[in-house]
From TrEMBL:
Organism in which the protein naturally occurs: Allosaccharopolyspora coralli
Annotated InterPro entries: Isoprenoid_synthase_dom_sf, Polyprenyl_synt, Polyprenyl_synt_CS
Keyword Magnesium among UniProt keywords: yes
Gene3D superfamilies, alphabetized: Farnesyl Diphosphate Synthase
GO biological process, one term: isoprenoid biosynthetic process
Name the record gives this protein: Polyprenyl synthetase family protein
Keywords for this protein: Magnesium, Metal-binding, Transferase
Transmembrane segments: none
GO molecular function: metal ion binding; prenyltransferase activity
Similarity remark: Belongs to the FPP/GGPP synthase family.
Record bears the keyword Ion transport: no
Cofactor: Mg(2+)
Length: 361
């Protein structure tokens, strides 16, 4: 395999294609219906995504001294590709939890299977069937992720070094998801709660743990691992904060989701928490009433979305989140500069920090 430094997403795609074809063959031996469902999951995995998590894992590997090509690099690509299966699990379950109708501009898994139920005139409740299918397929993706990591061909000692980060990541993302659901149920409006969810649900499994995974497989120096961990924690939260802004202000053609969907889903983001905090400090009951009535309203129309956008600007919440993104990115850069990381890893990680935190271009 040629160097993956310049075309990592294509290498990850090929690794996933090969692995998923093996697993689909297993499913075909079980039952044609199982194979049909598994094929829908495989298409979901292969048809979209920026391969961000494997990218950070790869550059953690390179930062730790891992080779750009050869058998060890090929094994690293396969190990990094397992992160896409965890991502698939998280997205399928997240869409179900949030009752999202679209993902990447296409019907979500639970919607797709509910539609199949209706089209084929099956018995029972179509929506319940779609939800059950999404739960099971998300679980299947998580199972396949673990299997892929353990069969990637990584040396046994390297795999043992990587497992603590892998285990922590899987627990943290589910913990963050639960706190997200709990926060919506409680109506939590605090910035502390919003940031904790960002740390666990996004920063951990998007940036920090993938970097640690790659560095561990490469047997990186402790100083490098510490710097990558700090860099990943800061950039991971900044990444989520940018995502929160896009969830309210983003272009649907870019995000693949309807404008204002985070508002309809009742997302208790830092953006909203900053707005609530400022409105309370100002004694602005009108703003509080508006935000509380709109947040979690599934019937929220575009005009009301636009009204909320204006209030978020007026309260300074957008500016506060932008400033925090800038602060986090600055701290991440200083962490990266604190140790000698070889090129091209150092430069690429600095570029990635900008790419994932400034997605308004």
């Amino acid at each position: 395999m040629a160097s993956t430094d310049t075309d990592l997403p294509e290498h990850v795609h090929r690794a996933l294609e090969g692995y998923l074809e093996q697993r689909l063959a297993d499913c075909r031996e079980l039952d044609v219906a199982v194979a049909e469902a598994a094929e829908a999951l495989a298409r979901f995995i292969l048809d979209g995504g920026k391969r961000l998590r494997p990218t950070f894992a790869w550059w953690g590997w390179r930062a730790g001294g891992g080779a750009h090509s050869g058998p060890a690099a090929e094994a690293m690509v396969r190990a990094a590709s397992a992160l896409e299966l965890i991502q698939a699990c998280a997205l399928v379950h997240d869409d179900l939890i949030d009752a999202s109708a679209t993902r990447r501009g296409k019907p979500t898994i639970h919607v797709r299977f509910g539609r199949t139920h209706r089209e084929r005139n099956w018995r029972g409740d179509a929506d319940q069937f779609g939800a059950a299918a999404a739960i099971l397929l998300g679980d299947l993706a998580l199972t396949w992720a673990d299997d892929l990591l353990h069969t990637a061909g990584v040396a046994s000692d390297a795999l043992q070094r990587a497992l603590p980060a892998w285990r922590a990541m899987r627990t943290e993302v589910l913990a963050g998801q639960y706190l997200d659901v709990l926060g919506q149920a409680r109506g939590d409006e605090s910035t502390a709660a919003a940031l904790r969810i960002d740390e666990l649900k996004s920063a951990s499994y998007t940036v920090r743990r993938p970097l640690e995974l790659g560095a561990a497989i490469a047997d990186a120096d402790d100083s490098v691992t510490t710097a990558l961990r700090e860099f990943g924690s800061e950039i991971g939260v900044a990444f989520q904060l940018r995502d929160d802004l896009l969830g309210v202000f983003g272009d649907p053609d870019v995000t693949g989701k309807p404008a204002g969907d985070d508002l309809r889903e009742g997302k208790r983001t830092l953006l909203m928490a900053e707005a609530f905090e400022t409105a309370r400090s100002r004694g602005d009951d009108d703003a509080l009433d508006l935000l509380r009535s709109c947040l979690g309203d599934p019937e929220l129309d575009p005009a009301r979305v636009e009204t909320v956008r204006g209030v978020l600007h007026d309260l300074g919440a957008v500016r506060a989140v932008e400033e925090r993104i800038e602060q986090l990115t600055g701290r991440a850069g200083r962490a990266l500069d604190s140790v000698a990381i070889p090129e091209p890893a150092a430069g690429t990680l600095a570029d990635l920090a900008i790419a994932v935190t400034d997605r308004t271009r």
